[in-house]
Amino acid sequence: MDVQVRAHDLIEEGRFHDAVDLIRKESQVSGPTALEVAKVLRAGEVLPGFPMFDEDDLLTRVRKLIDAGHRKQAVFLVRSTEDMSQSEAEAFVDSLSGEPNA
């Protein structure tokens, strides 16, 4: 699962420091960088292309996430890749899945 999504979930659970640790370890970035990423996530934003490990095109990656039942991760991926707002990314994901915005 995407590091940003997992870190965001930890932040929502009130586990900010755990989110920073996760970002630092799994993305192999410095502590200060991980802290800045976590602050961005806490503010409700995403970081485009952070981290970028997958070589499939966006549509393929989003469809794989939808098929696996990971809608939230798909929305994060679209937001971080295409510089879309939350609602735009949700509409994009929903257009691919055929499901209404939840």
Question: Would you mind describing this structure in some detail?
Answer:
There is one protein chain. The mean pLDDT is 84. The protein has 102 residues and is mainly α. The chain is built from 6 helices and no strands. It is elongated, with a radius of gyration of 13 Å. Helix 1 (3-12) packs antiparallel against helix 2, helix 1 (3-12) packs across helix 3 (31-42) and helix 2 crosses helix 3 (31-42).
Shape: elongated
The assigned structural class equals mainly alpha
Order of helices and strands: HHHHHH
Radius of gyration from CA coordinates:
13 Å
Spans where pLDDT lies below 50 across 5 or more residues: none
Helical fraction: 55-70%
Please tally the β strands and state the result: 0
On the 0-100 scale, what is the average pLDDT? 84
Q: What distance lies between the first and last C-alpha atoms, to the nearest angstrom?
A: 20 Å
- Percentage of β-strand residues: under 5%
Largest sheet: none
Tell me the number of helical segments per DSSP (H or I, 4 or more residues long): 6
List the helices and strands and how they pair.
Layout: H1 3-12, H2 16-27, H3 31-42, H4 58-67, H5 71-82, H6 86-97
Features:
102 residues; elongated; single chain; mainly alpha
Offer a concise description of the structure:
With 102 residues, the protein is an all-alpha fold. It is 67% helix and 0% strand.
